[in-house]
Specification:
Layout (H helix, E strand, L loop, with lengths): L3 H17 L15 H28 L3 H6 L2
Length: about 70
């Protein structure tokens, strides 16, 4: 059984959610859906950077000069 303070907190939170969330679809997203070309460009940048990161790290590691060979003069 819930006490009075828990019921009051639940009622306040429920009212907050009802008043501050909702509306039209896409209203609460952190990006604008109005311009489809800009949205497409941002999605390409977002997913492209995530997919390219491992390959860029691999390239960086392969291009580094190995420390062991420079120390041994090989």
């Amino acid at each position: 059984m819930m006490n009075k303070s828990s019921l009051l907190a639940r009622q306040i939170f429920t009212n907050f959610v009802r008043k501050h969330h909702g509306g039209s679809p896409g209203e609460n997203l952190p990006f604008n859906l109005g311009n489809r070309y800009r949205l497409t460009a941002w999605f390409c940048v977002f997913f492209g950077s995530g997919l390219a990161a491992p390959f860029l790290v691999l390239r960086h590691q392969l291009l580094k000069k190995p420390f062991l060979y420079t120390a041994l003069n090989i």
